[in-house]
Design brief:
By secondary structure, the chain is an alpha/beta fold. It is 44% helix and 15% strand. The chain is built from eight helices and seven strands; from the N terminus they run E-H-E-H-E-H-E-H-E-H-E-H-H-H-E. Strands 3-2-1-4-5-6-7 form a seven-stranded parallel β-sheet, with helices on both faces. Helix 1 crosses helix 8, helix 4 packs parallel to helix 5 and helix 6 packs across helix 7. The radius of gyration is 18 Å and the shape is globular.
Length: 261
């Protein structure tokens, strides 16, 4: 299927590895020019080289910066101001017991997982609307639908973003060809998931392998997702074919969420 995206420009955040890189790869393979951003310069350069090595050899720009800061966003928009596609993505805050989190922990979580996506939406949607096409995909978490007790910082911040998107996606932007959707990953084989298993092992005294296996068995698909298949879902949401989808929370979790709605 031709997604109708060749020649467009995408900003993909947290794109040096994991789900962000999976999204950048899927878009680049559709002929989308991408500006990728992440904090680690070395890993980001490796990701850019990987993207450039794959056909159809769309243009790749890279900015090593912390997108959750004012300076980081300024560095991105100094490289390029207008984007047709924005994929927001930031590493989730650490797990833990809510009794130990001070105000700074909450502010950090909100900055990364709620306020930064809102700032990126604010900076790009009017240009998208003027051109008659725009796609914003926020990578959030399956915990938005099924909160996880030890991920309270993530639960709170990402749910706040979800509420904001529910409103703004149904504003006048929808009639101007701009869609805003959230993509909710369950258990995908990423560094983030590995860190969660390490934390679980430390708390319970079991091995990391045992923690991983226990989680895998809870998933009807009986496996973890891959960044490549996550990227393919993202690319579809960005495509010409998804223009009638906006304000949606698209769950990709191998069937783990047990609810009907």
């Amino acid at each position: 299927m031709d997604l109708g995206l060749a020649g467009k420009w995408a900003l993909v955040c947290g794109a040096s590895r994991g789900l962000g890189l999976g999204c950048a790869q899927a878009l680049s393979r559709e002929g989308v020019n991408v500006l990728i951003v992440a904090r680690g310069a070395e890993a980001l350069a490796a990701a850019a080289a990987q993207l450039l090595a794959e056909p159809p050899h769309a243009e790749v720009l890279q900015v090593a910066a912390d997108i959750t800061t004012v300076a980081g966003r300024a560095a991105v928009f100094a490289q390029r101001r207008e984007f047709d596609i924005v994929v927001t993505n930031a590493g989730g805050p650490p797990p833990g017991d809510f009794r130990t989190w001070e105000r700074d922990a909450w502010i950090s979580a909100l900055d990364a997982n709620m306020l930064t996506p809102i700032e990126l939406i604010k900076a790009t949607v009017d240009g998208m609307a003027a051109r008659g096409f725009g796609r914003i995909v926020n990578i959030t978490s399956s915990a938005v639908k099924a909160p996880i007790d030890i991920l309270g910082l993530s639960n709170g911040a990402r749910t706040g973003l979800t509420g904001f998107v529910a409103g703004v996606s149904r504003s006048s932007l929808a009639a101007k060809g701009v869609t805003i959707n959230n993509l909710l990953p369950g258990a995908f084989a990423t560094d983030r998931l590995a860190a969660i298993f390490q934390g679980a092992a430390a708390r319970t005294g079991q091995s990391v392998e045992a923690a991983s296996e226990a989680r895998r068995k809870t998933i009807p698909a009986q496996r973890f997702g891959t960044p490549e298949e996550f990227g393919a879902i993202c690319a579809f949401l960005c495509s010409q074919h998804a223009g009638y989808m906006t304000g949606q929370n698209v769950l990709a979790d191998g069937g783990a969420y047990p609810g009907t709605f």
